[in-house]
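Hi again,

Forgot to attach this to my earlier email, sorry! This is the prediction with iron/sulfur cluster bound. I've pasted everything inline since the attachment limit keeps bouncing my files.
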Amino acid sequence: MTGGAWLIKGCTQAEESKTALESVPRWQPAYARLEAEGLLEARIARAYEIMEKCELCPRRCGVNRRSGEKGFCRAPEKAMVYSHSPHFGEELPLVGQGGSGTIFFSNCNLRCVFCQNWPIAHQGWGREVSDEQLAEMMLDLQQNGCHNINLVTPTHVMPNILSATRIALKNGLRLPLCYNTSGYERVEIIRLLDGIVDIYLPDLKFMDGTEAERYNLAAAADYPALAQEGIIEMHRQVGDLVTDEGGIALRGLMVRHMVMPNRVAGTREFVWWVAENLSRDTYINIMAQYRVEFKAFEYEKIARAITSEEFVEAMEWAKQAGLTNLDLRSLAQLEIHRRRIS
Ligand code: SF4
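Structure tokens for the complex follow:
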């Protein structure tokens, strides 16, 4: 795929962006092409079949969620949604001027002890919605001028998302899907999304299994290996980030990594892993936003904020690894932290 094939008219206002996206005949979301090929319906059927003996994530609980059983994530058959709204705090290529159309799903298949969304992810705040209602939310976000459908914590509700996307497509959805995942994925499931998702936005939280095990409520020691395998597959599907002329994300991989106190996230290993296994042009957001949330105060090494020195060294490692596409806000944070310690 060449970047030029995806370029659309630039935009200066949310409404203009929306109009531009709708008016360019060459660009269409991946799921629209799959539907035109007659292949989307079968993917949805396969996804719901997996939910009947649930193996949607590495927990592989084997419960039949379609008959009311619940596994580790506690998710029911229907999707549960906490909120859907334009979000202006995401990465700038997702936000533009119209916002990223976030849908926050309740529950989580990973459940970290430092979770910043713990009322939603751990305690399941939200309400059940049908696939038709979920489709209406997607269309509502498009109507409001958002640039994408940003599916926050989608792994355990992937079948519902695919079904809702097909319903919304028939009613005019044209926005790219952004799969905003913790990274705790099975590569076999990510392969099912090939040709459906345009933008992958995974975390890569830990590079060491011992640290991943220590800071997860259910000891996900396999997190680093599985997240890395999944991200390589995501990159194979969508490649590096491609934007329109206004800088709005259309397709590609964007990876998040949050710097944690005492180097427990393995940031140096992370940046070199990206350089050697993806592409040095991968969009990378090294985040400075760690705070002591949920149960983190019970764990000595992560019971404090990061220092300016820790963030500056993390960004310098990224530059030493030759990463060329660092998030603009993280670069601004670098300057702030540099000044604090100079
Ligand atoms: S999605 Fe939920 S029920 Fe299914 S395997 Fe994962 S944790 Fe278990």
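The longest strand covers residues 249-258. Residues 1-24 have pLDDT under 50 and may be disordered.

That should be everything now.

G.
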